[in-house]
Amino acid sequence: MYLLAGEGVVVRVSPFSQRQRLSTAVALTRWLVANGFPATDPIDVPQPVAHESYVVTFWRHYPQPANRVPPTGQLGSLLHTLHSLPSPPVALPGYQPLASFTIAVESSTYLSPDQVSWLMERGQELLHAYGELDFPLGHGHIHGDAYPGNTLWDGQAVRLGDWDEAAVGPREIDLANTFQGVRFGRTSEDLDAFSARYGYDIRRWPSLPVLCGIRDLHTLGSFIRRADRGETVAAEQLSYRIETLRSTDTQARWGAA
Between the CA of residue 212 and those of 14, 130, 144, 185, what are the distances in Å? Predict the structure, then answer.
C-alpha cells in the first residue's frame, strides 16, 4: 500500500489472483457511495489495473487524527444501514467461511505437522457446526470483514472500508467479528453501544460462539503468511494464538504484530 500524499490517493497493490475480488469491491463501493452510503471511495479512474503479476486499485485517502479511533457504536450504525439497503446490482460471491484460512494452513511452510493437523480438524468442526445453524437475521449482502478496525474518520463522519471480502451470506457474520474482539480488549460498553446502534444484540443468539470461533481461525491467516515469510514477531504471536486456542482459553488477550 502506498500513499500519494500530494494527490490524496491510496494505491493498493495486490496479487493478480485477487483481480476479480477487487473488481467487485470497486464496483460495489461505487454503487454504495452513489446511494449515499459512507463507504471508502474509489478514485474515478478505470480500475483495477493489471501489471505483470499484480493488480492495482486507487482509493481516496482519509487522513486520520492521532490517538482517536471511531467509536465501536458507529460500526453498528453503518452495518444497520448497509443491511437495510436493497440488493446491489453487483454480482457478489457466496460467503465461504474459512476458505482463505484453509489455503493458508495447507500451504504453510512454517506450521508444524501437528499444528496443521489440529487447525484443520478445528476448522472442520466449526464448519460442521456452521452448517447446522439457523440465522435469525437472514441472508443478504454483507461486508464480510466488518470490525471497528475497518472504520475511518472522514472529518466528523465515519466511513467503512476494506470491501475485499464482500459477499452474500448471513448478516450475523458482520456482527460476530466485533464480539470476537474481546480478545483484543473490546469492552462490554463497546459491545453494548454496537448492539444498540445496530438494533439487535447478537449475544442473545446461542450460536454466537460458533461464529467467534470461525473468526478466531480467520484472523490467523495473515499471521501464517507472515510467519512463512520469516517475520519473527508475527510467528511468535501466531504460536501464542494457537496455544490459547488449543487450551480453549477464551479469555486470553491477543496482540497485534
Answer: 27, 11, 13, 15
| β 54-60/139-142 pair status | unpaired
Tell me the mean pLDDT in the region 22-32.
Answer: 98
72-257: CATH, from 3.90.1170.40, 3.40.50.150, 3.20.20.450, 3.90.1200.10:
3.90.1200.10
Q: What is the pLDDT of residues 66-106, one digit of tens each?
A: 889 999 999 999 999 999 999 999 999 999 999 999 999 99
Size (the chain), residues: 257
CA distances for 74 relative to 38, 146, 161, 191, 199, angstroms: 12, 12, 13, 11, 12
Give the residue ranges of DSSP H helices in the chain. 19-34, 72-84, 99-107, 113-131, 172-180, 188-198, 208-218, 220-228, 232-246
pTM strictly above 0.90: yes
Give, rounded to a whole angstrom, the gap between the first and last alpha carbons of the chain.
17
Break the chain into its structural domains and give their ranges. 1-61, 72-257
In angstroms, the CA 1 to CA 50 distance is 15
pLDDT at 57: 98
Q: CA 115, CA 122: separation in Å to the nearest integer?
A: 10
| Closest of 172, 174, 198, 187 to residue 80, by C-alpha | 198
